[in-house]
């Protein structure tokens, strides 16, 4: 099946054999992961869509693909509009679309290992109004027709030493056990891959750029645990590290193992655990208590060791990025470079550090109009030349043993236009406003989001993505529960020790994209005369901004001072790590405005 049309036809044929009138295909795995292994890239195989978020619904006579605002342009480039209707999730959800389009009396299939229970219950209720049924399939029909579907990774597990974790796995399990006792629970299921990695101080290579192992865990109130991973992935070092309190079981045993908790009170996270887990426990007679995974907040609030590690990783990464920016300033105007070649050069600079474990995500390398695709992923077909008179946007990061980085810079190639300078400066103003924010304890990221958008809003423009996401400690580059965003109900209070990105942007279709991203650490802030505890941000990322894109005349005195202070820090932190022409260039870039 070399064409997407043939793959769609094959899926429909399999659906008919299975007695299904429709089937839902998400980008997801059995752990509700944002980034998934190759074996779980079902939506990409079926449709050609290469984004990290989306779903499709296939009916007998029509199909639709659902994407958010980040992928409005990309989905049209990658997915055939003759085969799929394009639906923005802000306009209509998968469930609402089914409520309108599912034929009366139809049977709509879904894989209970790829959806949450809440989603399934909502879909079931919506379809009931259509006199249609939602069916949990025993075998995923797409897997049945994906003949060369990759096998899940069997990469060996790795130990994350306490010198980087800052807390032993035994102490983390003890904290979970204490929480279980407080909640009156016998055990809790930990299904999210980064939660498993964090709780047991292990890492893996099962997902590109995200150092997590594919596995489940059940932690009990006595501090013991069961860890479900493929036995081929274990090493003697990992077994010794985990110790006798952790029973190792085959990944494939997890569904049946849930049946062993008959009559026990089990905590399950409804947001991070798939519907099948609830089904298995309910069928076994367990008492399910819906509770947030107890590692989520603990993982997000970095301890002192993790914070120091992050700072070391950011400094190291800033030097690599600064070397790249100097190289780009010299080479890009000469011509002959493209998105792939410059992304490879940036990876080469990062790779000069023996502490680099991997990139933290696939580099977003967007030249000219491709920079307007805010989550663009370059390939051989879309690869664009770096041309004079354009902007180049590069969003990238590294996975280091002591921290995870994520940084975006926008660079002018040749002379930027007045419009480019204006929009860049407005984005910079929003970035500064968030970086300088002082706010009371209990404030959420949703309350702060407007700070980064205000200068764009005042000019009637905006950007269709969140302003900030959490970042892990040698874990996922996108980590919750905190987020700085104007949509989606992000009501998680920011807490000292959380790390977020600060990344406002602007995107003009078919022209250019702009984003400025640093990572920021939530910290306590002393405010003279304050009548309550206050918080603020410490910037962690250090690499120069493109001075040519800054209109100093529209910056306030405080904004100019922020830029000057920031560049002084860049020179102080990055300067000792570079030399020669790069150091001279860095000094020029970091001169006061």
Automatic annotation (TrEMBL):
- Domain of life of the native organism: Bacteria
Alphabetical list of InterPro entries matching this protein: Creatin/AminoP/Spt16_N, Creatinase/aminopeptidase-like, Creatinase_N, Pept_M24, Pept_M24B, Peptidase_M24_C, X-Pro_aminopeptidase_P
Which family, according to the similarity comment?
A: Belongs to the peptidase M24B family.
Organism name: Parasphingorhabdus cellanae
What GO molecular function annotations does the UniProt record carry, in alphabetical order?
aminopeptidase activity
Keyword set includes Ligase: no
Domain Peptidase M24, first and last residues per copy: 310-524
Instruction: Kindly provide the name given to this protein in its UniProt entry.
Output: Aminopeptidase P family protein
Query: Which segments of the protein form a coiled coil according to its record?
Result: none
Which SUPFAM superfamilies is this protein grouped with?
Creatinase/aminopeptidase, Creatinase/prolidase N-terminal domain
* Keywords, in A-Z order: Aminopeptidase, Hydrolase, Metal-binding, Protease
Domain Creatinase N-terminal residues, every copy? 7-136
Kindly name one Pfam family recorded for this protein. Answer: Peptidase_M24
Q: Where is the Peptidase M24 C-terminal domain?
A: 534-593
């Amino acid at each position: 099946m070399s064409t997407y049309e043939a793959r769609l036809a094959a899926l429909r044929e399999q659906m008919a054999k299975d007695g299904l009138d429709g089937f839902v295909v998400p980008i997801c795995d059995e752990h509700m992961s944002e980034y998934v292994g190759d074996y779980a890239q079902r939506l990409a195989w079926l449709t050609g869509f290469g984004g990290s978020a989306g779903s499709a619904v296939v009916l007998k006579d029509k199909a639709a693909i659902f994407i958010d605002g980040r992928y409005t342009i990309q989905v049209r480039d990658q997915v055939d509009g003759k085969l799929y209707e394009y639906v923005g999730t802000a306009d209509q959800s998968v469930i609402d679309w089914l409520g309108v389009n599912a034929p009366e009396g139809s049977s709509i299939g879904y894989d209970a290992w790829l959806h949450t229970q809440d989603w399934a219950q909502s879909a079931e209720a919506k379809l009931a109004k259509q006199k249609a049924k939602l069916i949990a399939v025993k075998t995923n029909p797409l897997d049945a027709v994906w003949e060369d579907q990759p096998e899940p990774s069997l990469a060996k597990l790795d130990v994350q030493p306490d010198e980087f974790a800052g807390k032993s796995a035994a102490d983390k399990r003890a904290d979970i056990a204490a929480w279980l006792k407080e909640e009156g629970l016998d055990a809790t299921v930990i299904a999210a891959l980064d939660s498993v990695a964090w709780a047991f101080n292990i890492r893996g290579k099962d997902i590109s750029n995200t150092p997590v192992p594919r596995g489940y865990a059940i932690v009990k109130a006595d501090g013991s645990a069961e860890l479900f991973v493929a036995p081929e992935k274990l090493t003697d070092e990992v077994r010794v590290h985990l110790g006798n309190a952790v029973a190792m079981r085959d990944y494939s045993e997890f569904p049946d193992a849930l049946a062993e908790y008959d009559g026990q009170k089990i905590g399950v996270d409804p947001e991070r655990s798939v519907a099948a887990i609830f089904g298995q426990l309910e069928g076994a007679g367990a008492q399910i208590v819906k509770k947030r995974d107890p590692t989520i907040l603990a993982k997000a609030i970095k301890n002192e060791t993790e914070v120091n590690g992050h700072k070391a990783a950011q400094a190291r990464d800033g030097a690599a990025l600064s070397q790249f920016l100097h190289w780009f300033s010299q080479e890009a105007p000469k011509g002959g470079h493209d998105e792939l070649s410059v992304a490879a050069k940036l990876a080469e600079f990062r790779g000069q550090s023996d502490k680099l474990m991997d990139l933290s995500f696939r580099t977003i390398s967007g030249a000219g109009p491709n920079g307007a695709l805010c989550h663009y992923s370059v390939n051989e077909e879309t690869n664009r030349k770096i041309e004079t008179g354009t902007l180049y946007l590069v969003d990238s990061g590294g996975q280091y043993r002591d921290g995870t980085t994520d940084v975006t810079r926008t660079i002018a190639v040749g002379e930027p236009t007045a419009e480019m300078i204006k929009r860049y400066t407005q984005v910079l103003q929003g970035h500064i406003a968030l970086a300088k924010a002082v706010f009371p304890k209990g404030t959420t990221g949703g309350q702060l989001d407007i700070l980064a958008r205000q200068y764009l809003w005042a000019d009637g423009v905006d950007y269709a993505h969140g302003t900030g996401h959490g970042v892990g400690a040698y874990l996922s580059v996108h980590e919750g529960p905190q987020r700085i965003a104007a949509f989606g109900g992000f009501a998680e209070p920011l807490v000292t020790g959380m790390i977020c990105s600060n990344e406002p942007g602007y995107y003009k279709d078919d022209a250019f994209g702009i984003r400025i991203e640093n990572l920021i650490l939530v910290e306590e802030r002393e405010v003279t005369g304050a009548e309550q505890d206050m918080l603020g941000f410490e910037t962690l990322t250090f690499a120069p901004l493109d001075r040519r894109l800054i209109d100093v005349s529209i910056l306030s005195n405080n904004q100019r001072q922020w830029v000057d202070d920031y560049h002084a820090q860049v020179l102080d932190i990055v300067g000792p790590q570079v030399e020669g022409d790069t150091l001279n260039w860095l000094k020029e870039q970091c001169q006061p405005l």
